[in-house]
């Protein structure tokens, strides 16, 4: 009896110590090499780290079975670096991880067929997420195999061009717990397939129908989804003002709507839109109709709107001023490559929306230091500023960014006139994690040294076509984990 009690105490101690080690391993997620170093300390650490790891991203297909046997508690398997995954590989995965696997990424893999998918979905009963994007040869038989994953909640099948309404119908009938499905570029899927998804899968939260040949026939069924929050209709050329009239009948839960490249939508359609979905928080109208006063006024009813993206659209001065007059306080505004953005319009918006956190003015070539002055003085809480190729902004204006916008985490200054004085000022942004300085021909190692010494959280640095030697760049930075995109000027 004494020996039994002693062994029970030892087992309890082992369990407690293992839990403590797991807590330590949870803190080693910032650097991917830390866990590898931990596992090489001793055999005990090697075994413990194997039990703890849940996510795998193998580099080579031939070692896959051995890796899965070692990491027996794998729940997420990312095979995006193994392009030649075939049915034999899927058979091995389904056999080894049948009780643990919950998510698998096959978005860059090819070589498997419906047989491999069927073995995976039949064996791995706990599968909740599958990504088979870019499986261009997959047909309805493959879609029917996916339908066997009864607990599936998220499915990405973008560019599965051979799948038709019949295959999507099988998924709709078999996977009734779906909360997210992406059918982007599934050109064989039309109103019938989308309608079946809407009718059978009542739990849908996110629906991506980009570039599908759908019309207003399936919209009423979609808008009856009580939990739908994110709807993407990018490039749906069959959607017009008459189609949006159906929005008057519901979809109160919708929070994000993407209608990029929908050329047949005018201010009349948007008026129908705003009259029914007042809870919308994110709206994307990129590459669409010109943003005129009529369109801007039609969006005033969206009292909870926080983000609007107008990339690639023509923005009139009256339209931009109308956006500034909205009663809502925008958090994100994207005007990337928008023709018509001037100092007058941008300055007006900046002074009205002082709570902006993200601003994208990429390739707005008509703005100058006047806009930067107003933006930096009004929107001091900016965390992201993208202003690539704003060629009229003089080098003196970049000093204001560092002086006034201290909370910046992302800054894109590609192809601008910034110099070392501007970099010294920007080095005050201690939270900066992404900095892009490609084709900035006026900077040297002296300015980069200030950034390297002060911006300790920097993780991504773009020095494309930097004119100074590489050794000078290396000595400028003391950060522990930094991705540098570098190419010397020829």
Structural class: alpha/beta
User: Low-confidence parts, pLDDT < 50 over ≥5 residues?
Assistant: 1-13
Rg:
27 Å
Global geometry: flat
SS summary, helix count: 20
The helix content is: 25-40%
The largest sheet, given as strand count, sense and whether it forms a barrel, is: 18 strands, parallel
Quick one: how many beta strands? Answer: 18
Mean pLDDT: 88
Content of β-strand: 5-15%
N-to-C span: 80 Å
Summarize the structure in words.
By secondary structure, the chain is of the alpha/beta class. It contains 20 helices and 18 strands. It has helices at 2-26, 32-39, 43-52, 64-70, 87-96, 114-123, 140-146, 165-174, 191-200, 219-222, 241-244, 267-274, 293-298, 317-324, 343-352, 369-378, 398-404, 420-426, 445-454, 470-476, and strands at 55-56, 76-78, 103-105, 129-131, 154-156, 180-182, 206-208, 230-232, 256-258, 282-284, 307-309, 332-334, 358-360, 384-386, 410-412, 434-436, 460-466, 483-488. It has an 18-stranded parallel beta sheet, with no helix packed on it. InterPro entries: FBXL15_LRR, Leu-rich_rpt_Cys-con_subtyp, LRR_dom_sf. This is F-box/LRR-repeat protein 15-like leucin rich repeat domain-containing protein.
């Amino acid at each position: 009896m004494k020996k039994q009690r002693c062994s029970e105490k030892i087992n309890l101690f082992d369990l407690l110590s293992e839990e403590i080690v797991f807590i330590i391993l949870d803190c080693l997620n910032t650097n991917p090499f830390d866990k590898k170093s931990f596992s090489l300390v001793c055999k005990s650490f090697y075994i413990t780290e194997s039990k703890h790891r849940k996510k795998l991203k193998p580099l080579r297909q031939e070692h896959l079975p051995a890796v899965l046997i070692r990491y027996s508690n794998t729940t997420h398997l990312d095979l995006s670096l193994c392009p030649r995954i075939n049915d034999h590989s899927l058979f091995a995965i389904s056999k080894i991880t049948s009780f643990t696997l919950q998510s698998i990424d096959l978005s860059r893999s090819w070589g498997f067929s419906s047989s491999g998918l069927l073995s995976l979905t039949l064996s791995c009963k706990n599968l909740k997420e599958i990504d088979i994007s870019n499986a261009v040869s997959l047909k309805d038989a493959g879609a029917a195999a996916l339908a066997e994953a009864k607990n599936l909640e998220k499915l990405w099948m973008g560019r599965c061009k051979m799948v038709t309404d019949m295959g999507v119908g099988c998924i709709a009938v078999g996977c009734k717990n779906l909360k997210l499905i992406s059918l982007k570029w599934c050109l064989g899927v039309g109103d019938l397939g989308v309608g079946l998804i809407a009718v059978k899968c009542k739990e849908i939260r996110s629906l991506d129908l980009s570039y599908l040949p759908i019309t207003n026939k399936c919209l009423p069924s979609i808008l009856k989804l009580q939990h739908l929050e994110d709807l993407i209709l990018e490039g749906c050329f069959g959607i017009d003002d008459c189609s949006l009239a159906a929005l008057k009948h519901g979809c109160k839960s919708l929070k994000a709507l993407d209608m990029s490249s929908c050329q047949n939508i005018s201010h009349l359609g948007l008026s129908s839109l705003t009259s029914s979905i007042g809870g919308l928080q994110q709206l994307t109208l990129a590459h669409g109709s010109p943003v005129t006063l009529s369109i801007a006024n039609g969006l005033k009813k969206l009292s909870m709107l926080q983000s609007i993206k107008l990339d690639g659209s023509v923005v009139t001065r009256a339209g931009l001023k109308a956006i500034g007059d909205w009663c809502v306080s925008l958090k994100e505004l994207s005007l990337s490559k928008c023709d018509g953005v001037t100092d007058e319009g941008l300055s007006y918006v900046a002074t009205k929306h002082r709570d902006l956190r993200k601003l994208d003015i990429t390739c707005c070539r008509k703005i100058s230091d006047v806009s930067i002055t107003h933006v930096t003085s009004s929107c001091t809480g900016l965390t992201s500023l993208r202003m690539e190729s704003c060629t009229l902004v003089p080098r003196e204006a970049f000093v204001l960014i560092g002086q006034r916008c201290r909370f910046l985490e992302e800054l894109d200054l590609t192809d601008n006139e910034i110099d070392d004085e501007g970099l010294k000022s920007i080095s005050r942004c201690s939270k900066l994690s992404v900095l892009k300085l490609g084709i900035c021909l006026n900077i040297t190692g002296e300015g980069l040294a200030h950034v390297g010494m002060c911006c300790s959280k920097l993780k991504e640095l773009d020095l494309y076509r930097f004119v100074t030697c590489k050794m000078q760049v290396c000595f400028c930075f003391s950060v522990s984990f930094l991705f540098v995109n570098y190419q010397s000027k020829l």
